[in-house]
Design goal:
Distance between the termini: 44 Å
CATH topology of the largest domain: FAD/NAD(P)-binding domain
Bound molecules: flavin-adenine dinucleotide, pyrrole-2-carboxylate
Largest sheet: 8 strands, mixed
Oligomer: single chain
Helix content: 25-40%
CATH class of the largest domain: Alpha Beta
Number of domains: 2
Strand content: 25-35%
Length: about 425
Amino acid sequence: MRYSGWQLLKQGLRGNAGWQPAWRTPVLQRSYDAIVVGGGGHGLAAAYYLARVHGLKRVAVLERGWIGGGNTGRNTTIVRSNYFFAESAAMYDFALRLYEGLSRELNYNIMLSQRGVLNLAHTEHDMELMTRSVNAMLLNGIDVELLDAKQVRDEVPLLNFSPSARFPIHGGFVQRRGGVARHDAVAWAYARGASDLGVDIIQNCDVTGWLREGSRIVGVETSLGRISAGVCAMSVAGHSGVMAEMAGFRLPITSYALQAMVSEPLKPILDTVVMSTATGMYVSQSDKGELVFGAGLDLYPSYAQRGNLPTGQAIVAAMLELFPAFRRLKMLRQWAGIVDVCWDYSPVIGPAPVEGLYLNCGWGTGGFKATPVGGWLLAHLMATGQHHALSAPFDLGRFTSGMLVDEAAGAGIAH
Ligand code: FAD
Ligand code: PYC
């Protein structure tokens, strides 16, 4: 059901009586052509593209909790495509282009705000490395600009430009097409689009094992019983290692907590995203006015979705060093998500070492920006059994061939 502005007003005045759910609550079938485990943005996008691009009719997304309740609903919503290697730039920029058309494609306002993402250089050495990165990005067709200290000051006058600053600002670079998008809306938009095309979205369905026929995976064991499938995929972010172990193989992945925080709301004060890799701090202002800021990884493996106090303290300290004007702000809340980080900080998209199963994992600290492309590439793999040109470099095989795509710096936050 779609509402006009007038109908929305009427609904509001009537206390939302008769409001239609955005996606169906389907009857679980015992067999599907394709099953995607994990109802985050990537899993939902994969299901949507399986139905929309590849015409599959019997597709299910199985989610152990509620859709978008994993890292999709926990991230700090930054989107950008300013990665170093050509393979990454091509993939993340495809994602950004899909984002640019997503509100229209799904008729759902994902609140994409291309307010720019500005990365700071705090030393001359940072500046030299940034110059090299910017040159590589320009060669890869990414819209980035190197800025000197004065240009950074013109962009964000609130930053600390004092000569005695602990983290002096030597310059930076900006991607103007980067910005933020509303994370829940992305999940809900894909969910509604997929559901409208017949995809069954099953929440509160914990996948506890894989069904096999010989060496092939042919379905899943779940808290709601067994379900068979022509093809299966896992898109479970921080739980990829656990799901892989259930299938009898290991992934080159370590799981860490990544935390973030928001302040009380302010009037508009910061109109771009600011990232400072050297301090581990990044910040943007949400449409509600809260400052959304975050940190690097907690740096020891963990499944505790809370984040540790020393990392939180260090990040608040870094933020106040960089933005002294924020020192009297109150903090509203803090949280963490479990992210699965590959050895080269790039994702794994491709067939699993077990037949019948495909992988979308290892997005680590940076997979929100990749939601549309992660879904697109996983759908392509599941429907055709073949890599899309964009996913081929991210096959698991790179860990045996040595063709790693080392994006430690591209990840943008401290690792
Ligand atoms: P998720 O949204 O986590 O979805 C996976 C789903 O699988 C979950 O809903 C989970 O419940 C489900 N699941 C797990 N196990 C099972 C099972 N056995 N059975 C059924 N379901 C299961 N990225 C950016 O690009 N920009 C950012 O600004 C950014 N900020 C971040 C800030 C924080 C604090 C965090 C934690 C992450 C951030 N990220 C960011 C990373 C980004 O959030 C993730 O890479 C991305 O959301 C992963 O999406 P997903 O769909 O793969 O995973
Ligand atoms: O990938 O841009 C990113 C990001 C910012 C904060 C966490 N991840």
